[in-house]
């Protein structure tokens, strides 16, 4: 790459418009596009109306005073940082979208596997009705009965529904209809 083309690519990467680069280097848009894409960077035509910061940075870089040139360099570096952050955010969001899609595919595949194995939950099966909680006296009897049969039951708190059902099957209540 000759020096003039290298300058054109550098100007482009620093945000200059194609018209500004053509004016400075004499390269055509087609030549500039080939040079920029030859470095692996994407090429898009920039105009002053859609990239005013690039036009200002180019103006500052070409300004006769060191102060303006430093200011333009600071602005160019800040914009480059913002562009990098923007690109990174786009890459992260694309990766997140791929992960979401993969998770959805995995969930579908797992459901298909469960269905094939016959372990998928039956959609038509109604949930088992809740067993009425025992009162304090019946709860004490259930705990005693369960412990006598080798079940571990706490001295307080909820009693497993299957134990309540089993106890009541062996000990029908007079008030149960």
Automatic annotation (TrEMBL):
Keywords: DNA-binding. Coiled coil: none annotated. GO terms for molecular function: acyltransferase activity; DNA binding. It comes from the Bacteria. Residues 135-169 form the Lsr2 DNA-binding domain. The keyword Calcium does not apply. InterPro entries: E3-bd_dom_sf, Lsr2_DNA-bd. Residues 120-130 have a biased composition (Low complexity). Residues 113-135 are annotated as: Disordered. This is Lsr2 protein.
């Amino acid at each position: 790459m000759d020096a003039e083309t290298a300058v054109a690519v550098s100007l482009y990467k620093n945000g200059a418009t194609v018209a500004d680069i053509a004016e400075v280097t004499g390269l055509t848009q087609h030549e500039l596009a080939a040079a920029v894409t030859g470095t692996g960077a994407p090429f898009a035509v920039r105009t002053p109306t859609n990239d005013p910061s690039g036009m200002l940075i180019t103006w500052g870089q070409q300004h006769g005073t060191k102060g303006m040139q430093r200011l333009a360099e600071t602005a160019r570096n800040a914009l480059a940082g913002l562009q990098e952050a923007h690109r990174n955010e786009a890459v992260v969001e694309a990766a997140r979208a791929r992960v979401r899609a993969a998770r959805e595919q995995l969930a579908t595949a797992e459901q298909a596997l469960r269905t094939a194995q016959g372990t998928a939950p039956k959609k038509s099966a109604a949930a088992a009705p809740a067993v009425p909680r025992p009162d304090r006296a019946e709860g004490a009897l259930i705990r005693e009965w369960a412990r006598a049969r080798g079940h571990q039951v706490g001295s307080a708190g909820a009693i497993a529904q299957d134990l309540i059902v089993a106890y009541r099957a062996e000990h029908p209540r007079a008030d149960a209809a």
